[in-house]
């Protein structure tokens, strides 16, 4: 039946089943990718061995010619050169025969779990680089991105709350801000990134501006709508009769009433803000999650990329739960 | 308790209001003296809420003026409390905090609360104690820490009344306050209003000012006659009805003690009179006969 409730254990069980299914699908995908890569490598090795066999034949011919030379010194020189070539060829033959026998693809487009842990997680979590600049990527990148995201979110939230409440309370403010906000909320924020790169110097402030700009039009409009819809005018009249000043009305009644909506709206903005930030980092940053993803994408090495994606998901979930917890703590009256 | 024209709290002088071509109120003249509980009844769309809003000050009238203690006003003020049928409480505060909210707004400023934290903490405790005491009086001490969403409709209205009363307003306006409640709860709250009226009587007997003056808008005629000592009828059924509604009925109502048996037979004659004068066009030409509260009072005073 529609909306038939299920027990908690069923709910948890189904959640775990979904995660396991996802992991199984990934395992099958990575194994099949590795097998395909092995097959491709076997074919490549076969072709290479045929070429090497041809080279060997030519080398044998050259050696026979060299041995036929009567003058001692030129003959010796030619034989020495051919010996060196033979050594190189032997090494190649050995390598490619080995590959043909046991192709070890090490394809990193869809790495196996082992590769994810050994090459991705361990590389990301242990200091890497030369002696002069040794850094743990995960710390450097997550710190940079988290700091940009948090500051940008707070800045965007503060401006949006201020303007949203202003628009919700005063018609002139709404008439003034609504047209530009309506316009910019329809423009994909990622499309505006190049304009930011050109207009604003590429530095920490630029990331803040990008995030704040990305969330402002939507969030301010949603807060304004909430002020108009969720605060009945009777409550405002009543507050006036209780002696509230204009400012107290906004701070003590309107803000407190829409606070859970603000927190929910902010929660929903984390995703879009992160998209913008990673996109911007991908293009111009020298550190951060977007930057590292680009580096490894260029090498078609997905080991670190998958680890980062996994961690991003976990961090996003944690932020989400943190905001839900905050809403429950600050607005116990609101319920779930 | 005899109402006196010397102690008028609220006065409406030739009040008129319209929305576009829709004329709602026309020539409303009204005086309410201190300590009265006045019920305002009228057909749907007769402008009861418009009159209430004009008296509250949130929607000033287009013509005429409203005066409180002789002073004209055009905005809401802490002297006029209001209890609505819905949205009566701040959902983010507990019952006790809701009641204390007015004291906080009225007696302190935001700067005081931020910069004189210790003084504010002390004052807050006093406010909360006063709120708890008032909640106890309206029979809600057990629910003082609950949020409005956790309270029943009747409990919410009790808290809303306490929230308004703690401000000691000169006039308390009740806008169909019990409209959404079940019969038993409604009667409980009606008895609560009668208790307030008894306090007025006691205060007057002691030579003090009666503390509660209430104007209650209701569509329930039995309720109007039961809780009030004066009934006003607002209606468009008068000779100038096309220009907007006017007061077409103004008479004293029987006064009951709290928990005294409610004699419905007492109501019947007056209820029929109300139906005739306010809800129909039967007496349209001579409705002024039914606007006789002050004349009746004066006669009563002279006879006494």
What does this molecule look like?
The complex is a heterodimer of chains A (336) and B (304). Chain A has two domains: 8-107; 137-334, MetI-like fold (Orthogonal Bundle). In chain A, 83% of the residues lie in helices and 0% in strands. Chain A contains eleven helices and no strands. Chain A has helices at 8-68, 72-101, 113-125, 137-169, 171-186, 189-199, 204-230, 233-241, 246-284, 289-298, 302-330. In chain A, α6 (189-199) packs across α9. The longest helix of chain A is centred in the first third of the chain and has 61 residues, at 8-68. In chain B, strands 6-7-8-3-9-10 form a six-stranded mixed β-sheet, sandwiched between helices. Chain B is globular and about 65 Å long. Chain A binds chain B through residues 232, 234-235, 237-245, 247-248, 251-253, 256-257, 259, 331-335, and chain B through 56-58, 75-78, 80-82, 84, 86-88, 90-93, 101-102, 105-106, 109-110, 147-149, 163-164, 167, 169.
- Overall, the morphology of chain A is elongated
Query: Would you identify the regions of chain A where 5 or more consecutive residues have pLDDT less than 50?
Result: none
Gap from first CA to last CA of chain B: 13 Å
Total individual domains of chain A: 2
The greatest inter-chain interface is formed by:
A-B, 25 and 31 residues
- The overall pLDDT of chain A, averaged over residues, is 90
Major sheet details of chain B = 6 strands, mixed
């Amino acid at each position: 039946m529609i909306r038939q409730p299920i027990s908690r254990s069923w709910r948890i069980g189904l959640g775990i089943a979904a995660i396991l299914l996802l992991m199984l699908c990934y395992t099958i995908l990575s194994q099949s990718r590795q097998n395909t890569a092995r097959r491709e490598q076997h074919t490549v090795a076969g072709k290479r061995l045929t070429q090497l066999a041809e080279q060997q034949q030519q080398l044998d011919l050259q050696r026979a010619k060299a041995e036929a030379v009567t003058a001692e010194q030129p003959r010796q020189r030619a034989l020495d050169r051919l010996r060196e070539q033979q050594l190189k060829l032997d090494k190649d033959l050995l390598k490619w025969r080995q590959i043909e026998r046991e192709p070890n693809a090490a394809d990193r487009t869809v790495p196996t779990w082992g590769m994810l842990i050994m090459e991705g997680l361990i590389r990301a979590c242990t200091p890497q680089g030369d002696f002069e600049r040794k850094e743990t990527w995960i710390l450097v990148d997550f710190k940079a991105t988290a700091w940009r995201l948090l500051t940008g979110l707070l800045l965007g939230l503060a401006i949006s709350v201020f303007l949203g409440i202003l628009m919700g309370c005063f018609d002139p403010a709404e008439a003034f801000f609504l047209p530009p906000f309506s316009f910019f909320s329809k423009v994909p924020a990622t499309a505006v990134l190049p304009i930011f790169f050109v207009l604003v110097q590429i530095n920490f402030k630029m990331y803040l501006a990008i995030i704040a700009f990305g969330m402002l039009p939507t969030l301010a409009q949603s807060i304004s709508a909430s002020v108009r819809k969720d605060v009945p005018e009777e409550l405002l009249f009543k507050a006036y009769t209780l002696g509230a000043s204009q400012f107290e009305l906004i701070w003590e009644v309107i803000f407190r009433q829409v606070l859970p909506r603000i927190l929910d709206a902010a929660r929903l903005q984390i995703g879009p803000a992160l998209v913008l930030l990673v996109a911007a980092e991908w293009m111009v940053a020298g550190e951060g999650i977007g930057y590292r993803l680009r580096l490894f994408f260029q090498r078609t090495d997905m080991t670190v990329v998958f680890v980062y994606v996994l961690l991003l998901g976990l961090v996003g979930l944690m932020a989400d739960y943190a905001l839900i917890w905050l809403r429950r703590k600050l607005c116990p009256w609101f319920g779930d | 308790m005899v109402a006196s024209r010397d102690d008028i709290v609220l006065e409406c002088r030739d009040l008129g209001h319209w929305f576009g071509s829709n004329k709602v109120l026309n020539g409303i003249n009204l005086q309410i003296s201190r300590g009265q509980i006045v019920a305002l009844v009228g057909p749907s769309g007769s402008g009861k809420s418009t009159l209430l809003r004009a008296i509250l000050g949130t929607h000033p009238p287009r013509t005429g003026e409203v005066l409180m203690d002789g002073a004209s006003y055009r905005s809401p003020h802490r002297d006029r409390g209001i209890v609505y049928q819905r949205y009566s409480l701040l959902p983010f505060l507990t019952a006790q905090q809701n009641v204390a909210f007015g004291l906080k707004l009225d007696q302190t400023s935001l700067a005081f609360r931020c910069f004189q934290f210790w003084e504010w903490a002390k004052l807050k405790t006093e406010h909360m104690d006063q709120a708890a005491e008032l909640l106890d009086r309206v029979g809600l001490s057990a629910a003082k820490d609950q949020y409005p969403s956790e309270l029943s409709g009747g409990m919410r209205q009790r808290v809303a009344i306490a929230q308004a009363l703690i401000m000691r307003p000169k006039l308390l306006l009740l806008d169909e306050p019990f409209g959404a409640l079940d019969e038993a709860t409604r009667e409980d709250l009606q008895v609560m209003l009668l208790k307030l009226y008894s306090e007025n009587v006691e205060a007057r007997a002691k030579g003090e000012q009666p503390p509660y003056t209430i104007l209650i808008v209701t569509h329930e005629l039995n309720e109007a006659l039961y809780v009030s000592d004066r009934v006003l009828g607002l209606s468009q059924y008068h000779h100038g009805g096309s220009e907007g509604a006017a007061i077409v009925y103004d008479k004293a109502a029987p006064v009951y003690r709290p928990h005294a048996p409610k004699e419905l037979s007492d109501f019947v004659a007056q209820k029929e009179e109300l139906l005739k004068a306010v809800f129909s066009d039967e007496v349209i030409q001579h409705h002024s006969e039914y606007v006789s509260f002050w004349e009746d009072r004066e006669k009563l005073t002279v006879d006494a």
